[in-house]
Design goal:
The chain has nine helices and eight strands. It is of the alpha/beta class. Strands 2-1-3-4-5-6-7-8 form an eight-stranded mixed β-sheet. Strand 1 and strand 2 form a beta hairpin. Helix 3 packs parallel to helix 4 (about 105-120) and helix 4 (about 105-120) crosses helix 5.
């Protein structure tokens, strides 16, 4: 459809009927929050090296589209502020994953949350901020307590997960889809927590998870899931 973590991808998802977009946000060296999944630039841009080691004026000159398809040549890395604008223009809710580089967890959580509060000010549906980093989530909650948080968990739920979820102040658990079953969904819902499953790219898995009562799915293939 479109290269990941770009404005074109947000628009494409909206056109295929997605109600929420998930994207990843990092900080440039000069603290500009922008969209990129990987720590390094090589996979999805024509740049090289760690993204956190470059200022925004260097990053904005990169081509973030040609790797996917020549039709997207010249697509820029978007700032978080640009993504907020496009989401609001197209009626998309947003799941903003905070992706800090090592040592900048709290700083990234604070800056991303502050920018989200600004970008979605008075929005009918404010963004959901998610992260694998508890430190980033705590900083985000302190900076923008009015925004909802989701805790990304890799692997099985850890011991004491409910107590940690309450400490973090999250409203949702974001879990690997293969690990989601009915008892887990039931326990989360009983605790007042929503369940989001990632990453679901086929209809059979999507239908199984819907039957279990999963609240939301994260997918790389909204066009395929929309067909079902």
């Amino acid at each position: 459809m479109a290269p990941e973590n770009t404005l074109s991808a947000l628009v494409a998802g909206a056109l295929f009927g997605s109600r929420m977009a998930e994207f990843d946000v990092r900080l440039s060296r000069d603290n500009v929050p922008f969209l990129l999944h990987d720590e390094t630039l090589e996979r999805t841009t024509n740049g090289e090296g760690p993204a956190a080691g470059q200022d925004w004026q260097q990053l904005v000159r990169l081509d973030a589209g040609s790797w996917f398809d020549p039709r997207f040549a010249g697509e820029e890395l978007p700032r978080l502020a640009d993504a907020a604008r496009v989401c609001r223009e197209h009626g998309l809710a947003a799941n903003v994953e905070i992706k800090p580089c090592p040592g900048r967890e709290a700083e990234t959580g604070r800056i991303v949350a502050t920018e989200c509060a600004r970008g979605w000010q008075r929005a009918a549906v404010p963004p959901l901020l998610s992260s694998f980093s508890p430190e980033a989530l705590l900083a985000a909650r302190a900076a923008a307590p009015q925004l909802n948080l989701g805790w990304l968990i890799e692997g099985p739920l850890p011991a004491g997960w409910l107590a940690q979820a309450r400490t973090l102040g999250v409203m949702a658990l974001h879990l690997e889809h293969a690990l989601v079953d009915a008892p887990l969904v039931g326990a989360a819902h009983a605790a007042g927590l929503a369940v989001l499953a990632w990453t679901v790219n086929d209809l059979a898995t999507a239908r199984r998870l819907r039957t279990l009562g999963v609240d939301a799915l994260c997918t790389d293939a909204p066009d395929e899931l929309a067909a079902g």
